[in-house]
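Q: Start with the shorter request: fold the first protein.
A: Done. Sequence, then structure:
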Amino acid sequence: MVRIKARITGGEELEAKFNDKSRIKDPVFNYLDFLSRDIKDTAARYSPVETGTLQGAWESSVQRNINPMTATVINQTVYALPLEESGNNPRRSGRIPFFKPAIDTVLAKITRRGKILGKEIEKEMKKK
């Protein structure tokens, strides 16, 4: 299980600009939800397939009501972690490791998503 956490740096300054501090929650939630679903989908695509169990067992969720807001991507298949760390791909299907490359693939796109988050927060700041 890997947890992805987002903390807003300069949060006090940012919150001071809002009358309602909860207004930044929606853009941050949307950002984490998109990233966690993207990692889940990429990990499923990269997962080796024999029966499809590993590929279909990926889950993502976002804990909205905690600080920092936390996104979680998990696969509770018993053999997911040992297979990820083994480096062994006997059937030569999918990638080994599969989860770490999925994270790297999504993080390579994070700059674009960060700009979108910034624009969403700017829209909230302009609202009265």
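Q: Next, the second protein, separately.
A: Sequence, then structure:
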Amino acid sequence: MKSLQLSLIALVLSITFAKAQNNARIIPYFDSNDNKSYYLAWDIKTGKSIQYYWVGNEHKWASFEINIPAQPVPGATGNIMFDAYFDHQDGKAYYIAWDTKTGKSVQYYWNGTDHKYAAFEINLPAAPLPGNTGEVMIKSYYDSKDGKAYYIVYDTNGGKSIQYYWNGSGHKWEAFEINLPAQ
């Protein structure tokens, strides 16, 4: 009987540990100005993140003291995800954090004047993919030829998607009229 109890306890602990391990995510971006790679690691349940960079002369990874806010998407009810792109024109990295249940997102950039990550005042719509039935995912893209950022927002259940672009003259994110077909 004791061996059965110990086996059940070991099983519960291993499942708990495995679930905790599945909460971590990492994304990279490459900064062509300083010729370095950066990694953002975070917990999808809380959104708390740490950014890492390589310290070449010390041969080790280090983390920044200042990071994206610990609750990057206020009021989130789903998992928190991130994506990043590097804008070659202004030489900055941009992060988007979103709630996988609703799609609500917040974009962040490094504010050198205030020495902190700041949220943009203008973000994608609060519900960027109306009628989603699965998790909402977002992938960012920066086109160096036209100097614009793009986001594709898609539903993991069926593939319905909407692509957004920054309309500089309208000072807002707009959806393309024609998008990828749902599967």
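Q: Describe the second briefly.
A: The chain has a mean pLDDT of 85. Residues 142 and 148 are 6 Å apart (CA to CA).
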